[in-house]
Amino acid sequence: MAIAVRRATADDVAAMSAVLAASIRELCTEDHRNDADLIARWTANKTIEGVGAMLAEPASLMFVAEIDGAVVAVGSIIEGSVIGLNYVSPHYRFRGVSKALLAAMEDDMRRRGVAEASLSSTATAHRFYLDAGWSDAAAPEAGRFIVDRPMKKRL
Length: 155
What we know:
Layout: E1 3-7, H1 13-27, H2 29-32, H3 36-43, H4 48-56, E2 60-67, E3 70-78, E4 82-88, H5 97-111, E5 116-121, H6 123-131, E6 135-136, E7 141-142, E8 147-154
Parallel strand pairs: 4-5
Antiparallel strand pairs: 1-2, 2-3, 3-4, 5-8, 6-8, 7-8
Helix pairs in contact: 1-4
């Protein structure tokens, strides 16, 4: 199973939307506790139109991870040094896809001279980021939908 990570294009938007929504619905239950209203608010901008707008945003770099030509994970870097998204298709969880995507985004920031990156982790992903060398930057805080866990990493 070869994982290829690349910059996202407009042709990826529908697949990216599907991956984001499925990942949130199926993998982030520790965060949303199957609350239909919370899931709806969290996925509201993960529609094809919303993902298209993210891709068009100049302050955002969007990435996809592919296996056999299929988009199986979606990531983004916002404001140059902030991991904004890192979501994997439920079928590909625990297969190294998110790890490869995160490593590619970290490498991109290093190439651009970023010394320290940040992100807000979900409860679901917190252990994943700790295992990838990230550390807690502050106490968890109430976010728009869930409790965010601010994290940072020296690159």
